[in-house]
Structure formats: structure tokens, C-alpha cells
Design goal:
Largest sheet of chain B: none
Order of helices and strands of chain B: HHHHHHHHHHHH
Protein name (chain B): DNA-directed RNA polymerase subunit alpha
Distance between the termini of chain B: 36 Å
Number of domains of chain B: 1
Number of helices of chain A: 21
Number of helices of chain B: 12
Oligomer: heterodimer
Radius of gyration of chain A: 26 Å
Strand order of the largest sheet of chain A: 16-17-18-13-19-20-22-21
CATH class of chain B: Mainly Alpha
Subcellular location (chain B): Cell membrane
Strand content of chain A: 15-25%
Pfam families (chain B): BPD_transp_1 (PF00528)
CATH topology of one domain in chain A: Rossmann fold
Helix content of chain B: over 70%
Strand content of chain B: under 5%
Keywords (chain B): Cell membrane, DNA-directed RNA polymerase, Membrane, Transcription, Transmembrane, Transmembrane helix, Transport
Membrane topology (chain B): Multi-pass membrane protein
CATH class of one domain in chain A: Alpha Beta
Largest sheet of chain A: 8 strands, mixed
CATH superfamily of one domain in chain A: P-loop containing nucleotide triphosphate hydrolases
Number of strands of chain A: 22
Helix content of chain A: 25-40%
Number of strands of chain B: 0
Largest interface: A-B, 48 and 35 residues
Structural class of chain A: alpha/beta
Shape of chain B: elongated
CATH topology of chain B: MetI-like fold
CATH architecture of chain B: Orthogonal Bundle
Radius of gyration of chain B: 25 Å
Shape of chain A: globular
Distance between the termini of chain A: 21 Å
Structural class of chain B: mainly alpha
Chain lengths: 615, 310
């Protein structure tokens, strides 16, 4: 793939970037970084947030973010010394030599113009091609990036394509000028696992096809393992390790790299003893349906998000809820918390019905169910101190004030492993992981019995997320709380949950013990999710891609039966005449999991183990 | 009270010293001079704005005391007199001392505008919060009501009301406030609606908090910065509205005069460039510029602290 004899395309020497101007205190963000990238090579910059990876990536374009400046060192791309260029030279550099693919594609497109206009804009703006040639070029790029309908997708507007497609279109925009170097800045971080691998495969294909030199910024080692030839591990603005992908993954030389790898390969926690299976479950949901929009005569909302979901959570155990975005996971938590009305079904807390409307619940019911949101930034009131935030639920539920509240607050901070001095700060002065801990502490302040964790680790770095998961497991042992743990990440769910349900389009397609996820057979959708989690070894993506390229079996016209399998449009194992005609029946797999599928357990086991062998 | 002993048998409490250590540092921060904190908080332009605004506020209170002559006293035989030692800012069309006229007028312009702006912003913010926090119907009714009000041009509204009920200080204040309530309502409502969707408000709702608590603690403090900026803008608009009304002869009635009336009274001196017509205009200009500089720096400060929060 890459020739070791190639010349250096990128040469970074002693790069230093600082924040703040001279009279004020200056913080060094990047502290003397060196690396080189050969022509046609893919280099990954990996590290936690705050490690300076994006700052370095931007320095390759000769750009420093507002308030920062490049203080020293040199950046050479080809024969050009980027840092010595003037504004005009840098503009020319960015037009044809270096291109940038940002993390949020939806923020990178103008919703008022067609995709084709925007993809061809860099080429037209710098007068590199005629409009017709640029169009041709764009269409061939769309084809290389495996976008559907490459001829016509350019006529659509950004909101008419999916997030994963938009991310690929963003790459097309970057590649249209045939740049020598492309910088990918966490381009798949915001995507679902299933979408992520499509996008990764497209990126990998196009980079290989065009022989582009690429710098790939990410915090996810498994993703990087698929993309990169070399990995540079960063921490605190310094290079900790720089080596070939296989070496970094298999024989890491640096302590920090080992720590990163350990956080990625999480051991599974002990399962809670299923002691009181016969007792009343802490939370039981029966045939729950919910949604948004106008409610019709049958009491069914216009947009159905949850459809006939049933589940049980035993006291002291953890239920994992997995699904892609849009599968209704968050709505499920919000319905239980009373933030979204339900259309049908019952929610029972400890055997007693929990009213649908928040205003009809008792103080005790409020207290027993607490919710922790994904985004720690918006889940804490920025104008209050941590002490205020934690004091409120204590006062509200337990009437604690003064010294007693102070004592309890210190206890809580200790419980979530935060220093007591943090109590006087405001959320703005805390890191993401600290905020998430405060978030947890606020839920714990109520002495809840059930905590609804909505993607609590998704926005955090691997190492920080792993620490939060450990904390959750520890709290469960100490306080015997139950969790409903919502995530799109199978490995985190495996790490913490006793039981798992898999949601697809609001339907519970599989429900079972945690072990149901570890080996086939499982529901075809669960299988897709499991297979989409990047494995921590190079070459995984290529083998998987070869397998996934097969076309889906054809489906005939559909019957009007209302409860057809919702996954039939994406299922690789669908059966014409069954999946499109009759609703699937509930089956029990050998693992004890219940699934909704037409295939028998043996069929699924055969198909899925075959896939695993080829992979 | 006994809650805290129930569940965490294994928890080790922090010793007292770590909890107290930050407290000992706190007074040091407070003792830092007021002046240096102000300098840190505002930019140079913001400080200039602050200075001008404070200056005019002080004049509004002490103006009549420090004025060299009584407000309506005829002090000179010369009309439209120029700058002189006896009359620093010259004399007006009847030979009255211009400096004293302006000092006396300050309380009408600044006081009236301030009262009207406070009324408009407080009432608008209150209803905006109510609309955002309560259910759909309350929001719908309030919004349409204020939409109806906003569709009437403020100057026309003021002219009609004053023509119907006559001009008096309370009436002017009411009219100015009424004209600017819908704007404050719109802004506070849209800010509050955005904040209501944030997760900390959702958490408060799920905790079972009452609407009043959510509005007071979770929403209001987080919209106060933009509302202050809006307050400053609205203050300037109201100064201009009142000055405009006075210029038309519908504002503060003679022999009292606010700055707008002073410009109108002395408009005859415009041809000769008399200070009598220039100086009140300069006063209006400095006040509006000063307030704008101040709120601009407030707004930037707010934006920076928000950015830091993310």
C-alpha cells in the first residue's frame, strides 16, 4: 500500500502552539511536536480531548484557532514551509494542497444551497476547473465514496441526505481540488456504529484510490486501527508514541498508550446475582407505546417512536438499552421520567403504577427515579455553583439544610471522586468528565432507586468514559441502585449491564441476558450492531467490508399487516413471502434471549457463525 | 436528617481542612480593589461608556443642586448668547442660562427614560417567562396579544395616547413603557423557550419542581445577560422617543424641559450655530453613545463567559 521509499509529504518539526497573547499568561497547548508523513501514507493523531490533536491538525493548514497562535517550529508540506506563508499564500495552499474534513458535516453545509453547488465551490472559487469539469469530477468522487445515486445526489439539499452521507459529501468537497494532503478531524465521532463503518470504508477506499496523503484525527483507537498506517499518540500536547499501527496496538512502548488500550478493551464486570427473580421487579414496563405530534382518535400519536415495548428491571440490576439514533432509546427514558407522554401501556414502579403525567406523581415517586443526560454541558445550570446544584435535590426531597446538607454534599462529592473544593465552582470551570460526575452526584443526592443513564459516556473520551463506567459499577455495589443504561455502544453495554434489550425503530427486537450479545445466534439487527463495532486490529474493516457487500435478498410487495418486522428494509437475512407478509413471532434463543424474527435459532446461528469465520 | 447515615457506610468524609482551605483564600479575592476589578471586567470603551452613564445618572440626581442658576430664571438680556464665563454654555432664546436648563432637564430625560425602560423590561421579561414556562395556551394568548401591540408603530401609538389623554409625566412614562413592552416580551420569550429545552431544565422538571422555581432559578439567571443588553438598547430607544415627542411639543411641558424640548425651543438659533441648540443635542448624543458602549462591553463579557462555559 505505502512505499517506504516515498519522500516525506508532511514534515512537522518542534511545533509549538500557545493560547493567549504575550502580556497575559500564556498556556502552551502543543509543546514541541515532531512527526513526518510519507507520500500516500495515512497518519493518525490520537489522544483525549485537550491533547492538542485538532490544534496540530489545523496547524497543517497554517491555521490557529481564535486566541491561539503558532509560537515556533516548522510545518512543511511538500516543499512549502506553511508557517512562513503570508495570508494569500495560505489561502492558495488551502485551495489545492491541503484540505480539511471537519467533525460536524451538518454544520459545514449551507442548508440553502444544493450539495453540488457546495461540493464544487472550492474548485470554482479558486478557478481550478470549469463548472462542467467540476461537476464531472464531483460525480466520480460521489461514486468513489459509495454514495447512492451519484448522478443526482448533488441536486439535493443538505437536509435531504443522512448524516453519514453528508460526512462523505464533505469529504468529496475536500477532495475535489485533488489536494495532496487531507486532514480528517474526527469525521465519524458523531455517527452511529453502523453508519460509521460505511463512512470509514468510503474514506479508506477513496484515499487508497487517489493515493492521497491523509492525517486522521480521532480519539478512537479501533477506528484508527482501520484507517492508519502509522499512529501518533498525543497527550498534553506532547508526542507519547509514534509508530506503525500494528506496533502501537500490539506492542505499545509508552505507558499512556497502554492506558488507552486498556480503556478500549474493557473487562466485563461481575454480574449482579439474580437473587430475587420471583420478587416484584423495581421497574416494569408493559406494552408501552409513545410518540410525538398530534394524537389521533385511537390515541396514537402522529410519529410513533416506541411501539409495544415491555421490559423489567430487577432491584440492583442494570438493563442496557441499545439501538442506533432514532431507535427510541432516549424517548424510552423520557417516558419513564415523565417528560414525554405515553400513548398506551403501563409503567410500574415497584408494582405500583407510575402516572404518565409528571404533575400526578408523588414526591416519593419523583425521588425514586432520577435521570442523567448525555450532554453534561447542558445538563448543569451554568449560573449556579456545584454546591447549589447538589443542594437542591437534598433540600427538595429530604429537607436537608445547613450543616447536614453540607455534610451530605461532601459525601456525595467523595462518592463520585471529586475534590471538595469543586463545590464553589460553576459548571463552566469543570472538565467534561467532572461535569458528568456532578451530574451523577445530583441524581444520587435524591437517594434514588433507579437511575436512567442516557448515553452518559458517549460524549466523553475513552479513558474518562471508562472511569465513569467504573464509578457506576462501584456505586451499584455500594448503594444497590438499579440503572437503565442507554447507549449505542455495545462494548460499554457489555461492560456494565446484566440484561440487554435491543431497540430498532421503536420495537424491542431482542431482549435477553448480557451474554446474548457475546456470541451468535442473535437477531439479525443485533448481529449487524455487533459486527459494526470496530475491532482493535488492522484489516478488520477490509474483511468486514468484503462480507457486507452482498446485495440484500429481494422482497416482493408488502401486505397491510401492521406489525411487520421493522428491520426488513435493511435485513440481510430477510425472506420474501414471510418478512413482508406476516408479523414475526416471538422466539426464544438458546441463550435465553427473546427475539422477533422469522428465522429459527439454528438458521441464525448457522448464518452468523459463518460470517464470523469469514471475518 | 437521618438520610445521610443510611447508605454510605463505606464513605470516608473529607477532613475539615480541605473543605476550609478555599474559604481562607476567598477573602483575598474580594479584597482586590474595586477599581482593578472594573478595569478587568470592562474594555476601555466599556469603561468610557460606564463613566458617561454614571456621570449622567449623577447629574440627574444632583443637577438642580449644582446648577448655577434656577432652572427657569431669566438671567441675561442676550438671547442665543455664546459661551462666556457667566453662562458657560450660553443662553437660550429667552436669555436663560443653558447649562442650568440642561442640568435641570437631565432628570426628565434620564429619570423618565430609566423608569419607563425598567417598567418595559420588567413587565416584558415577566410575561415572556410566563409564556415560555406555562403551557401552550397561555403562550399562544400572550404572544398574539403582544403581536397585536407590536403591530402599532410606537410613535403613532404615543401620539394618539397623548393627544387623547394629554401630556403629563406619568402618562409619558406609561406610553414609552407600553411601546417597548412587546419587544422585551418577544426577546425574553424566545430566550426562555430555548433555555426550556436544555437538559438541566428537563432534569428540574423530572425532579418535580414547580414552574415558579424553574422560571426563577433555572431560566431567569441564564437569560439575564442578553436581557441586560436589551435593557440598554431599549433605554436608548426610549430616550430618543421621549426627545422626539418633546421636539414635537408633546413631551415634558414648559416651563420644565427635557433635552428634546430644549432642542425644539431653541431651534431658531440653529442658523447662527448657537450653543443653545447644539448643547442639548450633544447631551442626547453622549448619553446614547455612552449607554451603547456600556452594553456592548456587557454583551461581549456575557458572550465570553458563555463561551468559557462550553
Amino acid at each position: 500500500m505505502t512505499s517506504n521509499t516515498g519522500t516525506n509529504m508532511i514534515e512537522v518539526k518542534g511545533l509549538r502552539v500557545v493560547a493567549g497573547a504575550a502580556p497575559d499568561p500564556v498556556v502552551e497547548i502543543v509543546k514541541g511536536v515532531d512527526f513526518t508523513v510519507k507520500k500516500g501514507e495515512v497518519l493518525a493523531l490520537i489522544g483525549e480531548s485537550g491533547s492538542g490533536k485538532t490544534t496540530i491538525a489545523l496547524a497543517l493548514l497554517g491555521h490557529a484557532r481564535g486566541g491561539c497562535s503558532i509560537a515556533g517550529g516548522s510545518v512543511k508540506i511538500g516543499d512549502t514551509d506553511v508557517l512562513s506563508l503570508d495570508a494569500k499564500g495560505r489561502r492558495a495552499l488551502r485551495s489545492r494542497t491541503v484540505a480539511y474534513v471537519a467533525q460536524s458535516a451538518s454544520a459545514g453545509f449551507n442548508p440553502a444551497r444544493t450539495i453540488m453547488d457546495q461540493v464544487t465551490e472550492p474548485a470554482l472559487l479558486h478557478k481550478l476547473m470549469t463548472p462542467a469539469v467540476a461537476r464531472e469530477k464531483a460525480i466520480s468522487l460521489f461514486r468513489s465514496l459509495a454514495l447512492p445515486n451519484p448522478e443526482t445526489i448533488g441536486d439535493r439539499y443538505p437536509h435531504q441526505v443522512s448524516g453519514g452521507q453528508l460526512q462523505r459529501l464533505m469529504a468529496a468537497m475536500a477532495l475535489i481540488t485533488d489536494p495532496a494532503v487531507v486532514v480528517f478531524d474526527e469525521p465519524t465521532t458523531a455517527l452511529d456504529v453502523t453508519t460509521q463503518i460505511e463512512v470509514l470504508a468510503a474514506f479508506k477506499g477513496v484515499v487508497r484510490e487517489l493515493g492521497t496523503t491523509a492525517v486522521y484525527v480521532s480519539h478512537d483507537l479501533a477506528v484508527v486501527a482501520q484507517m492508519a498506517d502509522r499512529i501518533v499518540v498525543l497527550n498534553g500536547g506532547r508526542v507519547r508514541e509514534n509508530g506503525a499501527t500494528a506496533q502501537v496496538l500490539d506492542a505499545p512502548a509508552d505507558e499512556y498508550t497502554r492506558q488507552l488500550l486498556a480503556a478500549t478493551r474493557r473487562p466485563e464486570v461481575e454480574r449482579a446475582t439474580p437473587d430475587d427473580a420471583r420478587k416484584v421487579p423495581l421497574l416494569e414496563i408493559r406494552n408501552l407505546s409513545a410518540g410525538y405530534g398530534r394524537i389521533d382518535a385511537n390515541g396514537v400519536p402522529a410519529v410513533r417512536v416506541l411501539d409495544d415495548v415491555s421490559l423489567k428491571i430487577a432491584r440492583g440490576s442494570t438493563l442496557g438499552v441499545i439501538g442506533e439514533s432514532g431507535s427510541g432509546k432516549t424517548t424510552l427514558a423520557r417516558v419513564i421520567a415523565g417528560l414525554v407522554d405515553r400513548a398506551h401501556g403501563d409503567v410500574l414502579l415497584d408494582g405500583e403504577s407510575l402516572p404518565a403525567k409528571l404533575s400526578e406523581r408523588t414526591l416519593d415517586q419523583y425521588r425514586r427515579v432520577q435521570i442523567v443526560f448525555q450532554n453534561a454541558d447542558t445538563a448543569l445550570n451554568p449560573s449556579r455553583t456545584i454546591a447549589d446544584i447538589l443542594a437542591r435535590p437534598m433540600n427538595f426531597y429530604h429537607g436537608l439544610r445547613g450543616a447536614a446538607a453540607q455534610k451530605r454534599m461532601l459525601e456525595l462529592l467523595d462518592l463520585v471522586k471529586l475534590p471538595a473544593s469543586i463545590a464553589k465552582r460553576q459548571p463552566g470551570g469543570l472538565s467534561g468528565g467532572q461535569k458528568q460526575r456532578v451530574n451523577l452526584a445530583r441524581a444520587l443526592a435524591a437517594n434514588p432507586e433507579l437511575i436512567l443513564c442516557d448515553e452518559v459516556t458517549s460524549a466523553l473520551d475513552t479513558v474518562v468514559g471508562a472511569a465513569i463506567l467504573d464509578l457506576l459499577a462501584e456505586l451499584r455495589r455500594e448503594l444497590n441502585v438499579s440503572y437503565m443504561f442507554i447507549s449505542h455502544d455495545i462494548s460499554t453495554v457489555r461492560a456494565i449491564c446484566d440484561e440487554v434489550i435491543v431497540l430498532y425503530a421503536g420495537q424491542c427486537v431482542e431482549a435477553g441476558q448480557r451474554d446474548a450479545l457475546s456470541h451468535p445466534p442473535y437477531h439479525p439487527y443485533t448481529g449487524l450492531l455487533v459486527d459494526s463495532v470496530p475491532a482493535l486490529r488492522p484489516g478488520w474493516l477490509d474483511s468486514r467490508r468484503a462480507m457486507a457487500l452482498g446485495a440484500l435478498p429481494a422482497l416482493g410487495p408488502e401486505s397491510d399487516a401492521p406489525e411487520l418486522c421493522s428491520f426488513r428494509s435493511r435485513c440481510a437475512a430477510r425472506i420474501d413471502g414471510k418478512c413482508n407478509v406476516t408479523p414475526p413471532a416471538k422466539k426464544t434463543l438458546p441463550s435465553g434471549a427473546h427475539i422477533l424474527c422469522h428465522h429459527s435459532a439454528d438458521d441464525l446461528a448457522r448464518m452468523q457463525s459463518m460470517e464470523t469465520v469469514t471475518a | 436528617m437521618n438520610r445521610n447515615v443510611t447508605s454510605h457506610a463505606t464513605t470516608v468524609l473529607y477532613d475539615q481542612p480541605p473543605a476550609d482551605a478555599p474559604q481562607e483564600q476567598a477573602p483575598v479575592v474580594v479584597r482586590r480593589g474595586l477599581m482593578s476589578r472594573l478595569v478587568n471586567r470592562f474594555s476601555v470603551l466599556g469603561l468610557i461608556g460606564l463613566f458617561i452613564v454614571v456621570f449622567w445618572l449623577v447629574i440627574a440626581f444632583v443637577g438642580p443642586v449644582v446648577a448655577p442658576y434656577k432652572g427657569g430664571a431669566f438671567t441675561s438680556t442676550e438671547v442665543f448668547g455664546s459661551y462666556s464665563a457667566a453662562h458657560l454654555l450660553g443662553t437660550d432664546y429667552l436669555g436663560r442660562d443653558m447649562l442650568s436648563r440642561i442640568l435641570y432637564g437631565t432628570q426628565y430625560t434620564v429619570g423618565l427614560a430609566l423608569a419607563a425602560t425598567v417598567a418595559a423590561s420588567v413587565i416584558g421579561t415577566f410575561f415572556g417567562l410566563v409564556a415560555a414556562v406555562s403551557g401552550r395556551w397561555v403562550d399562544e394568548v400572550l404572544s398574539r396579544l403582544f403581536d397585536a401591540l407590536i403591530s402599532i408603530p410606537s410613535k403613532i401609538l404615543a401620539l394618539v395616547v397623548i393627544a387623547a389623554f394629554g401630556s403629563s409625566i406619568p402618562m409619558l412614562m406609561m406610553v414609552a413603557a407600553l411601546a417597548y413592552i412587546p419587544g422585551a416580551f418577544r426577546i425574553s420569550r424566545s430566550l426562555a423557550v430555548n433555555i426550556m429545552t436544555l437538559e438541566y431544565v428537563q432534569v428540574a422538571k423530572a425532579r418535580g419542581e414547580k414552574l415558579f422555581y424553574i422560571a426563577r432559578v433555572e431560566v431567569l439567571p441564564n437569560m439575564i445577560h442578553p436581557m441586560l443588553a436589551d435593557f440598554g438598547l431599549r433605554f436608548v430607544f426610549i430616550v430618543l422617543l421621549l426627545s422626539g415627542l418633546s421636539f414635537l411639543g408633546l413631551g415634558v411641558q414648559p416651563p420644565n424641559a427635557d433635552w428634546g424640548s430644549l432642542v425644539r425651543e431653541n431651534i431658531g438659533g440653529l442658523a447662527e450655530g448657537a450653543p443653545a441648540v447644539l448643547m442639548p443635542a450633544v447631551a442626547i448624543a453622549t448619553l446614547t453613545v455612552g449607554v451603547n458602549l456600556l452594553i456592548d462591553s456587557l454583551r461581549r463579557h456575557g458572550a465570553r463567559s458563555h463561551g468559557g462555559g462550553q
